[in-house]
């Protein structure tokens, strides 16, 4: 009953759709009176890759996994996570 808000961080590669996560969360709080005042905040993080050659970090938008220098890379440093980053409580 003291949970105010749950903050999630979901990467684009995590296959988590924020609207579907919200719908599932709403179903849980409807069935459990302890969490009816709780909110869910989902932050979607972009895919970031780091080139092994030039060490530049590039945001990947087309799922090509190519550095801005033109070299392919498999070094994903962000975008595949699904984390609970914060839980807020009522005083």
Q: Care to give the gist of this entry?
A:
The protein has 91 residues and is α+β, with helices and mostly antiparallel strands. Helix content is 15%, strand content 38%.
Largest β-sheet summary: 3 strands, mixed
Give the terminus-to-terminus CA distance: 11 Å
Regions with little confidence, pLDDT below 50 for 5+ residues: none
Radius of gyration, rounded?
17 Å
Give the H and E element order.
EHEEEEE
Mean pLDDT: 92
Helix content: 10-25%
Name the structural class: alpha+beta
Helical stretch tally: 1
What is the topology, as strand order, of the major beta sheet? 2-1-6
Q: How many β strands by DSSP?
A: 6
Shape: elongated
What attributes characterize this protein structure?
1 helix; alpha+beta; three-stranded mixed beta sheet; three-stranded antiparallel beta sheet
What would your notes on this structure say?
The termini are close together. The strands form 2 sheets. This protein has a 3-stranded mixed sheet, covered by helices on one side. A 3-stranded antiparallel sheet has the order 4-3-5, with no helix packed on it. It is an alpha+beta fold. The mean pLDDT is 92. Helices cover 15% and strands 38% of the residues.
Helices, strands, pairings?
Layout: E1 3-11, H1 18-31, E2 39-45, E3 47-50, E4 57-60, E5 76-78, E6 82-89
Parallel strand pairs: 1-2
Antiparallel strand pairs: 1-6, 3-4, 3-5
